[in-house]
Amino acid sequence: MAARIMNLPKHGLCHLMRTSALARHYAGSTGSASPPQFTTLSVDDKTGIATLTLNRPPANALNAAFMGEIARSIKELEKSKCRGLILTSSSERIFCAGLDLKECYQAEASHLQGIWVALQNLWHTLYSTPLITVALINGHTVAGGGMLALSSEYRIMLPNFKIGINETMVGLAVPMWLIDTYLNVIPNRRVAEWDLTASRIYKSEHALKAGLVDELAASKEQGLERAVAFISSYPKHSLVARAITKRQFREKDLKNFEDNRQHDLEIFLSNIQKPNVQSYLGEYLESLKKKA
Ligand SMILES: CCCCC/C=C\C/C=C\CC/C=C/CC(=O)SCCNC(=O)CCNC(=O)[C@H](O)C(C)(C)COP(=O)(O)OP(=O)(O)OC[C@H]1O[C@@H](n2cnc3c(N)ncnc32)[C@H](O)[C@@H]1OP(=O)(O)O
């Protein structure tokens, strides 16, 4: 296989940023020209399939720079001849642990704003991309990590890991755009409501039964093979029609998000800065440390 590693930011990415006021804020706050720090990207020239590997040890926790990097890579791939994207992790235990909680604790409002806007942008970019997207979930994936997996079109998971959205457990409500994303995968509203209100975390095997993931693979190698097979199952001539059809399915969710983007940010900023939420967050971080 002829694979190459792309150093995307060399291509000049400022023009890729979305043009809303919030996105401009984000572009300004993270700087779009820095080289990739937390991901590696390889593209197979023969299949046109890109593999973006998350690499921010120990937990692939999402901060603004990391999320910006992922979103910029997707935007750059959209401009190339790539047909599909596989998201995976360099860690053998964790696909993504969600937002970097250490960066959410006792942080300045401007920092929290940068994090949330980056999360919004990343969700929008991944959920709306015309690329065929597969999450190869080779480790635990919760909260913002669950968002990455659920925003992709197809999920392949390795056994004995956890997947779910646990925001209510950290004392915060799940935003509407993530509820819509969940419903796009688990259309049974009762199950979805129960899962999200109860912060239900599934083990891989149960996630498969529930339809939260589409396949289990015995190893990362097998998962990669299956991901390539899924993406390659779409004939080349169908790609444009496929992308339009995907967009139509997701359009209402994307519009709802755009209509409420500023409000969603305000809710996050208001909630995350509440003393009781900060205090709980401090305890939660301690509990993560004590496990070691
Ligand atoms: C509170 C702010 C959230 C506000 C959001 C509100 C509403 C929005 C809702 C949805 C939108 C989507 C966005 C969601 C927000 C989030 O993502 S909040 C993040 C919530 N994440 C978690 O609760 C995960 C916590 N981690 C774990 O449960 C476990 O680590 C794991 C992922 C299951 C892995 O377990 P394992 O045993 O393998 O590893 P360790 O626990 O030993 O962890 C290794 C290492 O990594 C550090 N770490 C883990 N998670 C995080 C994290 N989220 N942020 C920062 N650091 C993390 C952990 O402390 C260990 O570090 P070390 O001791 O230094 O080795």
From TrEMBL:
Molecular function via GO: isomerase activity
Top-level division of the source organism's lineage: Eukaryota
Pfam families: ECH_1
Matching InterPro entries: ClpP/crotonase-like_dom_sf (IPR029045), Enoyl-CoA_hydra/iso (IPR001753)
Keywords: Isomerase
Descriptive protein name: Enoyl-CoA delta isomerase 1, mitochondrial
